[in-house]
Amino acid sequence: MFKLKISTETIGIIFAILAYLSFSLLDTIQKTLIIYYSVFQLLFIKYCFTLCLSFIESRRKKNYKFYITNNLKLQISRSFLSILESACFVLAFRYLSLADAHSIGGLTPIIVVIFSSIFLKEKITPKIWLAIFMGFIGVLVIMRPGLSIFDPKSLIPLSAALFLGLYQVVTRKASEYDQNETSLFYTAITGILIMGSISFFYWIPINLNFILLFIGVGVFYSLGLYLQIIALSKARASIVQPFHYTLIFWAIIFGFIFYNDVPDLFTITGATIIASSGIYIFLKKGD
């Protein structure tokens, strides 16, 4: 009898695709909620669900001392970066289409390579530097600085990409000291304390019509994180990372379905350049 054998890395890729699908659904919901509620309120809800995820993951691994970190300074730093990148991305969805925000945010994997070179002393070949430059050109194509159509609000997802890139590098460093569930715990606690304190002054009572959407934010965010953890446990980061660009694909589809957004030629061209550059970089890094 014929048996289909799937490699571990293929399983990791499947989980990665599902993780980015979950994040795309999250962003689609956030684009609606950010119109009626504050960014602090949305982030507070997300970090509450993240705390639950840290408990689930620690129980799964039987790590009952997950709250103990070997590098508190590093954990606090990455938690602040998590807040900054999440806040910038959510704000970007208020002002830009999903496709535009994610196309510019697609620069993140390229930024990770740059920051890895600076902070982790990873070597980058001239060919990869050229691909990084091409990725930057892709962002310029989308943003169109110097032209009358340039929107300063496009700097918001660019800032988010910078913070997320730095966050991923710091997270990679933190993984040398702590397990995933420990990092999740400190991200959640820091986020809950800071966003809870701020959102107290900006809290808007949740309308019954939006309760399911708020639950969706928490579920899809924590589910995306969990699927990403599984993906990285099954496959190398260099294999998983290129699938980050499926976010742009989902953003175009969901943006059209739910918000009737149709990306223009500049966005499609720029997104293609960015995605191609990022995929080339990670293919070459795996050589």
Q: If you had to describe this structure to a student in words, what would you say it looks like?
A:
It is built from twelve helices and no strands. It has 287 residues and is an all-alpha fold.
Number of helices: 12
Q: How much beta, percentage-wise? A: under 5%
Annotation, overall tally of beta strands: 0
Provide the residue-averaged pLDDT: 87
The largest β sheet comes out as: none
Low-confidence stretches: none
N-C termini distance? 37 Å
Indicate the structural class.
mainly alpha
Shape field: globular
Oligomer: single chain
Helix content: over 70%
Give helix and strand order, one letter per element, not per position. HHHHHHHHHHHH
Q: What is the CA-atom radius of gyration, in angstroms?
A: 19 Å
Quick recap:
The chain is built from 12 helices and no strands. The protein has helices at residues 8-36, 39-60, 72-95, 98-105, 108-119, 126-143, 155-174, 180-202, 211-234, 237-240, 246-259, 265-285. The chain starts with 7 loop residues before the first helix and ends with a helix.
